Structure formats: structure tokens, C-alpha cells
Amino acid sequence: MDWTDSIKNRLVSFLGHILISILLHSCRLRIHGELPAIKGSRIFIFWHRHLLYLMFHFRHQNARPLISLSSDGEIISTISKKFGMKPIRGSSSRGGARALLELIGLAKTSDNDILITADGPKGPLRTVKPGLVKLAVKSGAPLIPACWKASRSWVLTRSWDQFIIPKPFSKIDFFFGKAIDLRGIDEEKVAEIMKTLEKTHNCV
């Protein structure tokens, strides 16, 4: 990244953080579902289209989001840091193996809230990536589905993920699903588990 890209990244991230904060602080929140009393790390999974409010919801909680190494990911990573997060960089196309090993280590050794877009940084839409299930199987940390919907929102229909942006002063309903424990699951069943997640994790 040259100095012009660095300046652009800082400017876009600065403005993005401010605009997201103003927008989402204007919304009213209702939470549905209870988080289970779990000792150890938790892996929160959600579709990429829900990224905006998830980042805001877990602000200043030392959450560990997995963010791609792309130029867009660089901006998202910088914004997440402004929200008090500690991002881990990597995706299935770049740095995936290293990121997976880092996530497994984090999930095994300490109490972390790990945030992962189940369909990755590029999709396809609502298609679970196999690395997510491998992480849960190898680390023993439960998967907890999360999603939200807004009473009024914009949908970016031209983006692959149909990205959602709540409108100012809308009502946001935030949902936690039941924890999914994959300890002891044979990795040969990964494809079957992925299909089950895609059918049951039907947040809008």
C-alpha cells in the first residue's frame, strides 16, 4: 500500500466510523434470544449482508472479527479497530490457512468472541464456507448464529451479498440463535453440516 492509498484508507475509515456511529445510535434495539453460559470462546456467525450492525453491536468488547486481506477489508479492519475490536486478517483466497490456525489457537486458549461471516468476503450468498466448520470442529468452540433486521432499511441489490443498511431512527431486532456444538464431529461430515447451517441459519 503506497502513501496515497494509506491516506485514502484513513480518511474513508474515519468518515465511515463517524457515519456508522451516528446512524446506528439513532436506531432503537430489541434483542431476541439469550446467550448460553459458556466458559471459553464463542464463534458468532452471520451472513456478510449483516456485517454493518454486527460490527456496531460488538463494539468495545475486544471482539475478534475475521476480515479479508483485500483493499475493502483494509478499510473494514481499520473501522473495526476504531470500534475497539482486534481483527484477524485472512480469507479462503488469501491468508486463509494462517488465519485458521490463529483462530483455532485463540478459541482454544482464551475467552474470545470471534466474529465470522459464514459466506465469506465474496460469497456466494448464504453459502457456508468449509473453514468455518473446521474451526468449530478443531477448536471445540460453539457456533452461535446471529442476525438482525430493521423496520426500515436500504438493500444494495447490486452487491453480491445484498448488503443491508438500516435507515435512521429505524427499529432493529437482533437475534441470537442456539449454540451449535460440533465437538467430536467427523470432519467427513463437514459438507452435511454446512448444508444444515445454510437451511437453519435463515436470518433475513
Could you outline the blueprint of secondary structure elements for this entry?
Layout: H1 3-25, E1 28-32, E2 42-46, H2 51-57, E3 64-67, H3 71-82, E4 88-89, H4 96-109, E5 113-117, H5 130-139, E6 143-150, E7 153-156, E8 163-166, E9 171-176, H6 190-200
Parallel strand pairs: 1-9, 2-5, 2-6, 3-4, 3-5
Antiparallel strand pairs: 6-9, 7-8
What is the N-to-C succession of helices and strands? HEEHEHEHEHEEEEH
In what order do the strands lie side by side in the largest sheet? 1-9-6-2-5-3-4
Number of helices: 6
Q: In total, how many domains does the architecture comprise?
A: 1
| Overall SS class | alpha/beta
Rg, Å, rounded: 17 Å
Number of strands: 9
- Main beta sheet strand tally, sense and closure: 7 strands, mixed
Q: Segments where pLDDT lies below 50 for 5+ residues?
A: none
Instruction: Assign an overall shape.
Output: globular
The averaged pLDDT comes out at 88
Strand content: 15-25%
Q: How much helicity do the residues have? A: 25-40%
N-C termini distance? 36 Å
Kindly describe this structure:
There is one protein chain. The chain has helices spanning 3-25, 51-57, 71-82, 96-109, 130-139, 190-200, and strands at residues 28-32, 42-46, 64-67, 88-89, 113-117, 143-150, 153-156, 163-166, 171-176. It is α/β, with parallel strands linked by helices and 204 residues long. The chain has one domain (3-200). The protein has a seven-stranded mixed β-sheet, sandwiched between helices. Helix 3 links the parallel strand 3 (64-67) and strand 4 (88-89). The longest helix has 23 residues, at 3-25. The protein is globular.
